[in-house]
Amino acid sequence: MSEATTLINDAAERSARLGDAGAAWGERIGSNPDSAKLTYKVAGVGVGSVATRISAGKHQFTVDEPAALAGDDTAASPVEYALGAVISCQVVVYRLYAEQLGIQVDDISIDAEGDLDVRGLFGIDASIRPGFSDIRLTVNITGPESQERYEELARTVEARCPVQDLFSNATPFSTVIAKV
Question: Which InterPro entries does the entry mention (predicted)?
Answer without folding.
Answer: KH_dom-like_a/b, OsmC/Ohr_fam, OsmC/Ohr_hydroprdx_reductase, OsmC/Ohrsf
